[in-house]
Amino acid sequence: MTRSVLRAAALVVAAAAVALSACAGASPRGDTEDVVAQIPFRPGERLVYAIRNEAGTRLGTGTFSVVGQDGRLSLRQEYEEAPPPPGLPTNRDAVTVEVGATTLKPLSGSRHIERRVGTQAPTDGYTWTYGESNGKDVLRSNVIKHDAKPSLKDVTLREHYYDNETSLWLWRTLAFADGYEAFYVSANAVEQQQHTVNLSVRQRETVEVPAGTFEAWRLIFRNGRAVRTAWVNVNAPHEVVKWDNGDLVFVLESSSR
């Protein structure tokens, strides 16, 4: 594996946070709103993605699953580098966010990253909760890195927020229509920040991925100066069949329910 591919492989463990993390430039302007119009996924769903770089080299696997419990949904992501260099530990990343079952409003979350440093893979941990303080919604984020002091921070949230780590589920819940456009707030507990995201639904396109050929809506996301693209199955349950976050490309390999 070349040095450039090794550097790219390390990005696999940051795949979830890269979804719509901070980008240079001002946030897009517009009135934010709740964007969830439907919940097309159910407990028991499992989607598997191949994660590639721009050259098409496979760097890892991402598994997305849904678990139902106590009137809420547990949205889980697991990323694993594939394959790791011989004799060295594997980069891994596991994220869980608890959300309201009908609104996708976030309740709490956690993330654990095993990122290779030399011959070891120390763990960085993140935990967070959503609550209220002085009449305002607040994200309380606790970051514990292996090589830094813990960082506890409260972020007072703007209205119409969703957790950044649930993005690939959130985009499936839209009221899909050609020309649809909306603004919402993405709360990022890992970066301890929030950002306004502008999304728009463009034309339908035919997309071929390992899981098959899909008629898909092309979605455009703007956050700062960055522009990202996702393709969402026109038919329910509206899986994200392809996602280009600017560093990595996710392509759907399989789905089960």
Structural commentary:
- The protein is mainly β.
- Helices cover 5% and strands 52% of the residues.
- It contains two helices and 15 strands.
- It has a 15-stranded mixed beta sheet with strand order 8-7-6-5-4-3-2-1-15-14-13-12-11-10-9.
- The longest helix has 8 residues.
Entry keywords:
2 helices, mainly beta, globular, 15-stranded mixed beta sheet, 257 residues, 5% helix, disordered N terminus
SS field, number of helical segments? 2
In this structure, how is the largest beta sheet organized? 15 strands, mixed
Q: What's the Cα radius of gyration?
A: 18 Å
Tally of strands? 15
Tally of domains: 1
| Secondary structure category | mainly beta
Poorly predicted regions are 1-9
Q: What order do the strands of the largest sheet run in, or round the barrel if closed? A: 8-7-6-5-4-3-2-1-15-14-13-12-11-10-9
The residue-averaged pLDDT reads: 89
Write the element-wise H/E pattern from the N-terminal end onward. HEEEEEEEEEHEEEEEE
What's the end-to-end separation, in Å? Answer: 35 Å
The shape, in one word, is globular
